[in-house]
Specification:
Immunoglobulin-like, mainly beta, single chain, five-stranded antiparallel β-sheet, 262 residues
Length: 262
């Protein structure tokens, strides 16, 4: 079941939203289910993944026409492994001849990956998420599942750096976090919108069984390097955050982690 987390600030800002889905609830109540094509594991490296999404109210495939545009794309797909170190954010395309969706990606590390899709149904304007698992073999050895992440609120990708404010985060309470972009060499970040938002933040608990996708709001003027993130973490524990944004025209993906208290 998808739960959309909204604050007044998010309603007032079209670029900000968040979606939360629990895997067990999704299996029981979600209108959309995700079915991967083929049987058995896929080989590591460049791969093509085919899948169908089924609307359980009509028992029919979800097509491109059934979806509204959500942040410049009809569908968002997220791949990550149990170690929470490998992460991909892709955008599938629809093949009307087979009523299937296709996405290309590169996964060089073996493992039992989570596959999450996110979109918005055109008829109800309701966001949905659905998940499945994908075995990858023949690549670098699978990394052990994450058992501890800790509160690590600064991360780096290349020279791009992200720092999240040290606010206490309490489960099931709306949290406001300041997100600051900088560079390790002291130069000024050259930020630009990515898929219609200043940045994209994906957060998952340590077991990977739910997904939060939220877009922070820019603070200050056009050249501001600070953003405000509004979201809610449903349960206590460690969460992996991946912050994606454009710096100098290069897409950066910065890993962080936060500890959510009871």
């Amino acid at each position: 079941m998808t739960k959309t987390l909204i604050t007044a600030a998010l309603v007032a800002t079209a670029c900000a939203f968040s979606t939360l889905a629990h895997a067990d609830e999704a299996a029981a109540h979600s209108r959309v289910t995700l079915n991967l094509s083929g049987e058995g594991p896929m080989q590591a490296g460049s791969l093509g993944l085919n899948f169908q999404m089924i609307d359980t109210t009509t028992n029919s495939p979800v097509t491109e026409d059934n979806l509204a545009v959500l942040h410049e794309k009809k569908l968002h797909l997220f791949l990550f492994d149990p170690s929470l170190q490998e992460f991909r954010h892709e955008h599938p395309v629809f093949d009307s001849s087979s009523s299937t969706w296709h996405v290309s990606s590169t996964l060089n590390t073996s493992g039992n990956y989570w596959v999450w899709v996110q979109g918005e149904l055109a008829d109800t304007q309701q966001e949905f998420t659905a998940s499945s698992r994908l075995d990858i073999e023949g690549g670098d050895p699978a990394l052990p599942p994450a058992s501890f992440l800790g509160d690590v609120r600064t991360g780096v990708d290349g020279i791009s750096q992200v720092t999240v404010s040290n606010n206490k985060i309490t489960a099931a309470h709306m949290t406001m976090l300041t997100v600051t972009m900088s560079r390790t060499d002291g130069s000024q970040p050259d930020l630009a919108p990515y898929l219609g938002a200043p940045a994209h933040v994906v957060a998952v608990p340590i077991d990977g069984s739910s997904l939060i996708h939220v877009h922070p709001m820019a603070m200050g003027g056009a050249n501001s390097t600070q953003m405000m993130l509004h979201t809610e973490f449903p349960n206590p524990g460690d969460y992996r955050l991946w912050v994606q944004f454009l710096d100098g025209g290069i897409l950066r993906t910065v890993p962080l982690s936060v500890t959510v208290l009871r």
